[in-house]
């Protein structure tokens, strides 16, 4: 450890919110600043206090040595260089040739990323330069940097109560120009403490927007059923905040039900789908090139459904309809299934406002039939069956037809399982290709022809899991599952194109159902 022994960057075990007059930055400087320790040896107390106060206030001249005492000369050099970069960014010194504000911020954030032992030093430098700084534009720049620092990097356990106190004082003064951004910094620090900081440094376009005063980014969330949710997310918005906001808008505001939903990040270029964990930062998924779309999906089905909200009905109907038509719900061809397909076709027809009084054409009936069953269900008998249903049943309003469709879907044998098409499995008793289904309780292996379940792995028996790289060029990625008891451990690997998606889905389900301790 190259910094002062007491200034370690160990994991924070408790987030202190100090009260009273203790833990001011003057107290911190008195105990830990290099210069304050020198003064202590030379001066009397009153003069010393005044001089220490100067040490935590804005300066027009660059510092000649790090604020904190480092035995490592490289850290001391990096600290003084950083202070000059900070002054250039804040407008207190002229920039280097061809250097802009974005590059200054990057340089500071990159240094924090590479040198954890400099976190406290950099926090102290920024706090110093925003304190009693006569230039309001310079102060705003400094707070902008603090906004990023608090969301990305934590101060050490030693500095944490002092930094928290500083932000608390700054945010409780409504007359100051920066009390709003100080509140944001407080929130960032809390999230960083609870969830860890953002993984990826911001893109230049994000920093440029912040410099222009745009602290929120417009985001359109396509939801099942053609509903689009328009929102604005901030630099350090986590998935659980957006999830709660959307769920409340569609009448699903209870915490238990919110846990049943997930946000998905989907890349348009390679169709990669990844569920976003509730404590992950949305900006860590949103790329500069806009290739990633964030969508909403119900992942597990623990809480009973309720249909008083139209958006809620449309979202559930849209998700179930898409899954049903695109083979995401396993359906086997049988006489009973043909009857079900007919009823579900009638309900889809009634769900369309403009189709209320007409019978569906053969083309429409094909659209109402799952792709996996289109080759095995003959169109003529289906058309006759649906025609008979339309003549003999009381016509429903679109919203009621959607609710009945949802209720029918929930009775299907494999409803609630997320299914994956698997091409190879290590267990040679399992016929491949096959389907693996995952729900809130278990992983099942389903025969692709008979739909018989050949293996069940309860999620509470899952000990460990990892993704596997393809074994050859053009080969498929895989997942290795370690499950069973300590007395009878078992291992299975499987190969499928959606290996990463399946892996992350299981991780999120385990977190949501708290089976994974």
UniProtKB/TrEMBL annotation:
The lineage of its organism: Eukaryota, Metazoa, Chordata, Craniata, Vertebrata. Residues 58-211 form the MyTH4 domain. It comes from Pterocles gutturalis. This is Unconventional myosin-XV. Residues 217-517 form the FERM domain. Belongs to the TRAFAC class myosin-kinesin ATPase superfamily. Myosin family. InterPro entries: FERM_2, FERM_central, FERM_domain, MyTH4_dom, MyTH4_dom_sf, Unconventional_Myosin_ATPase. GO terms for cellular component: cytoplasm; cytoskeleton. One of its GO terms (molecular function) is actin binding. Transmembrane segments: none annotated. It is found in: Cytoplasm. Keywords: Actin-binding, Cytoplasm, Repeat.
């Amino acid at each position: 450890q190259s910094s002062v022994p007491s200034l370690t960057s160990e994991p924070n075990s408790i987030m202190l919110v100090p009260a009273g007059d203790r833990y001011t930055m003057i107290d911190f400087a008195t105990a830990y600043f290099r210069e304050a320790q020198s003064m202590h040896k030379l001066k009397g107390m009153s003069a010393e206090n005044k001089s220490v106060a100067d040490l935590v206030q804005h300066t027009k001249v660059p510092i000649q040595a790090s604020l904190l005492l480092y035995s490592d000369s490289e850290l001391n050099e990096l600290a003084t260089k950083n202070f000059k970069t900070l002054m250039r960014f804040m407008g207190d010194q002229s920039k280097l040739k061809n250097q802009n504000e974005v590059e200054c911020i990057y340089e500071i954030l990159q240094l924090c990323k590479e040198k954890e032992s400099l976190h406290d030093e950099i926090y102290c430098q920024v706090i110093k330069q925003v304190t009693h700084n006569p230039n309001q534009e310079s102060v705003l720049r400094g707070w902008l940097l603090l906004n990023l620092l608090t969301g990305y990097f934590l101060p050490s356990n030693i500095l944490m109560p002092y930094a928290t106190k500083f932000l608390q004082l700054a945010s409780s003064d409504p007359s100051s120009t920066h009390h709003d951004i100080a509140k944001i910094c407080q929130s960032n620090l809390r999230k960083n403490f609870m969830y860890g900081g953002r993984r990826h440094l911001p893109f230049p376009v994000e920093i440029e927007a912040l410099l222009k005063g745009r602290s929120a980014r417009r985001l359109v969330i396509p939801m099942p059923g053609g509903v689009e949710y328009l929102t604005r997310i901030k630099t350090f918005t986590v998935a659980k905040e957006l999830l709660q906001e959307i769920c409340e808008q569609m009448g699903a505001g209870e915490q238990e039900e919110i846990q049943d939903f997930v946000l998905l990040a989907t890349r348009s270029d390679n169709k990669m789908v990844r569920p976003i964990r509730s404590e992950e930062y949305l900006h860590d998924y949103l790329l500069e090139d806009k290739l990633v779309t964030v969508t909403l999906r119900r992942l597990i089905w623990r809480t009973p459904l309720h249909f008083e909200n139209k958006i809620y009905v449309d979202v559930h109907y849209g998700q179930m309809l898409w899954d049903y038509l695109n083979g995401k719900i396993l359906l086997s061809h049988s006489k009973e299934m043909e009857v079900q397909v007919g009823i579900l076709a009638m309900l889809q027809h009634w769900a369309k406002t403009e189709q209320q009084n007409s019978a569906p054409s053969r083309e429409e009936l094909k659209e109402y039939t799952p792709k996996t069953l289109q080759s095995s269900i003959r169109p003529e008998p289906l058309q006759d069956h649906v025609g008979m249903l339309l003549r003999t049943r009381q016509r429903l309003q679109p919203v009621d037809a959607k609710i009945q469709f949802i209720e029918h879907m929930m009775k299907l044998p494999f409803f609630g399982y997320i299914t994956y098409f698997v091409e190879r499995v290590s267990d040679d008793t399992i016929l491949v290709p096959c389907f693996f289904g995952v729900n809130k309780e278990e992983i099942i292996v389903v025969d692709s022809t008979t739909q018989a379940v050949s293996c069940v792995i309860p999620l509470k028996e899952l000990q460990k899991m990892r993704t596997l790289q393809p074994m050859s060029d053009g080969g498929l990625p895989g997942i290795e599952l370690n499950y069973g008891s300590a007395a009878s451990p078992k291992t299975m690997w499987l190969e499928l194109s959606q290996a990463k998606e399946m892996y992350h889905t299981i991780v999120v389900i385990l977190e949501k159902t708290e089976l994974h301790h």
